[in-house]
Amino acid sequence: MPDFLLNALIAGLTLALVAGPLGAFVVWRRMAYFGDTLSHAALLGVALGLLLNVSPTLAVTAGCLLLAVLLVTLQQRQPLASDTLLGILAPTTLSLGLVVLSFMQDVRIDLMGYLFGDLLAVSPTDLAWIVGGSALVLLALLGLWRPLLAVTVHEELAKVEGLPVAGLRLALMLLIAVVIAVAMKIVGVLLITSLLIIPAAAAQRHARTPEQMAIGASLLGLLAVGAGLALSWFQDTPAGPSIVVAAASLFLCSFALPRRHA
Where is this protein primarily located (predicted)? Predict the structure, then answer.
């Protein structure tokens, strides 16, 4: 197997592994629009990283984390509905990133790669960021699984039990921000949330417990990455969109199986 294909496979499988349980929380808490906002802001992080001569991956990670904190703060202090606020910030950050990039005439970047991913171009450095970031998120998610699940099931009851609800909500958003930052190289800023949501939504139909849904989402994500890479390799299709198409196909196939009930 060529080195670039092996790097792509390891990166995709690593991300799919952590996107499963995290995507389950995105589906349960209906945070898809939040993920979209962070993914759109990732392009602004790329632009600022190039402008300040900082690693784009590091700049995107820092930008997504800061935006997550800003969103939590604004949601608590402003009178607008959350979806309205997200609807303002998502296109604004994406457009601002494109405007900043347009001023850097002496910098040549693969804009399509950032928008739609370039998995087959993952370098050893990119791979280290992806594996390291995904491992940290997975470890944090395992440690916070029970408290996050309690807050997701019944937030008011979690408050009564003494759980730090606001802190847990912020922690979940920060974990999503890190995954979006490291996933940018794989599926691009416009398709990141699909890798979080589609496998989790497909697994939800046949899971009896939260743990089954998280594991099922990871397994479906792994299958989608493998199928998408195979399609890209043999048919010369773009790798990131091919993975999303494979995930969507698995989601449609899930309707062919009888739904399980607890």
Answer: membrane
